[in-house]
Amino acid sequence: MPPLVIPSPGSPTDPRGADPGAGPSWGDAPYPVLVLDANGTVVDRNRAALLLPGPCGGSPSPDAVPAWLSDAHRRLAEESGGVPAEPLTGEIGDRVYEAHPAPAADGSVVWWLVDGTGRHLAEAALHGARERADTLAALFSALLSSLNVPRCAEVAAQMAAEHLADAAVLVTPPVGRRHGVTRARRGEPVVQETRQVDPYSVPGLAEALQGFPPVPARWVNPGDIPGWAVPAGFAGPVGSVIVTPLPGHGVPAGALILLRSSAERAFTPDEEMFARIFAARAGTALSAARLYGEQTSITATLMRELLPPVLTAVHGVEYAGRYRTAADHERVGGDFYDVHPAPTPPRRPSSYWATWPARAWTRRS
């Protein structure tokens, strides 16, 4: 008997040895009870079983028994009464039930059905939440491992196609008149290109690329999607489309177009929320990569002014120079000199070159 079943007055505690025809042992139980003979035919049921959805609640034929319960009943008969340690689980209508068998003395089996729909939904929700958390952790780890805009766009589009949709198209803000477009399909290589596109050809894309004012994810009519926004080789017609912005550090980092084929189901509210969180993580990484690229470009420009000039041989003497950044703990000081060639060939070795003090500079830590 399931642990939550309270036996009726006058009924035995363990129904395994009870006569299924007696009735009072399970007839008043709040759980549905089905009595199946050796052939799998329903020979009796209690009042709660009459409320089961479908033919299981009223027909005595073997076809009225769900396939999963009929298979379990047949295996139980072949095992000569061996009861499985764990309860069997299956669907009846839109509900999920756990089936607990109790073999009777005449060879029939009393099946106690416990509604486990609530727990099943809770476990499925918990499993989905864990998968989404693992996906976000893997996404952020992969994105932050490379502060490179094309690489970040490739990783974001690829993971979006694997976990959010059948295909994903990531569009970055324009550089001049050209946008970076990254296309990804599930299980296929990522394709990247830079091209001129009209953001207004995709509803909601222009607003997502502006970044301000912030806009939410937007459902788009699949018929309004231009050809460039659908990856080559996309299986079947487009069934559902979402355009979501990629928010960055005060500036737009791009937009993500998620596509599902007509064979796939539409996006659920939980999936839409997950897509927004995914887009926020991807936008943060893309913004950081773009900022790092700008800082690297500025640093390279400033470094060109600090690097020493190319030094050549002067009257047979070769000179070389190098740049080394001073550490914070070092005290750098002294006189700095510029080297100029002598106007006339020197007469003694000490006059091979002439120097003029340029400046004196001392740095204290």
UniProtKB/TrEMBL annotation:
Listed InterPro entries: Bact_Sigma-Reg, GAF, GAF-like_dom_sf, PPM-type-like_dom_sf
Single GO MF annotation: phosphatase activity
SUPFAM superfamilies xref list: GAF domain-like
Keywords for this protein: Hydrolase
Region annotated Disordered, chain positions: 1-26
Ranges that cross the membrane: none
Compositional bias of kind Pro residues: 1-12
Domain GAF: 131-296
Source organism, top-level taxon: Bacteria
The protein's name: GAF domain-containing protein
Annotated organism of origin: Streptomyces griseomycini
